[in-house]
Amino acid sequence: MAINIKKCTLEDIHKLQEISYETFNETFKHQNSPENMMNYLEKAFNLKQLEKELSNISSQFFFVYFKDEIAGYLKVNTGDAQSEEMGNESLEVERIYIKSSFQKHGLGRYLLNNAIEITRAQNKKNIWLGVWEKNENAVAFYKKLGFVQTGSHSFYMGDEEQIDLIMIKTLI
């Protein structure tokens, strides 16, 4: 299979913004109001915010390519870049998105395996993520890969509070 991964740099910021908008919108537009979606997209994926995140040494972005086309991306965080205090022995998968037209090709698993490799290479004990409780396919996917729900936290989509499940996998 022609799958490749490439670490993003500041030079990739416009491609990152484009795929961030596209994949987040595809994933969540059917379950949220257009106003809340627009509010979130403009806040989370504006160029200034993405530049700040790309410049943070505790965060890394990666594009996944399928047959030489960007099919999705991954964002991982360590240290104080994590969205929850999980300590220095943990790595967070903050974002993992695949374009709908590229789903069912194993790309999500490929990106998650890369995140696990990064976790191990950095001698971290745990890999964790937050997943919307209503995203049943994603919750089932992470459970199948050995992630266990250990808690939850609030996520705001515009003015609406939603619940993300905290799921952790301990690496030994």
Structural summary, described in words:
By secondary structure, the chain is α+β, with helices and mostly antiparallel strands. α1 packs across α3 (47-55). The model has no long low-confidence stretch (mean pLDDT 95). Strands 1-2-3-4-5-7-6 form a seven-stranded mixed sheet, with helices on both faces. The chain has one domain: Gcn5-related N-acetyltransferase (GNAT) (Aminopeptidase), CATH 3.40.630.30. β6 and β7 form a beta hairpin. The chain has five helices and seven strands.
Strands ordered across the widest β-sheet: 1-2-3-4-5-7-6
SSE pattern: EHHHEEEHEHEE
Q: If you consult CATH, what is the topology? A: Aminopeptidase
What is the count of DSSP helices, taking H or I runs of 4+ residues?
5
CATH level-4 homologous superfamily:
Gcn5-related N-acetyltransferase (GNAT)
Give the overall pLDDT as a whole number.
95
SS class: alpha+beta
Q: How many domain units? A: 1
What separation lies between the terminal Cα atoms?
29 Å
Total DSSP E strands: 7
Helix content: 25-40%
- Major beta sheet summary: 7 strands, mixed
Computed over alpha carbons, the radius of gyration is: 15 Å
Overall geometric form: globular
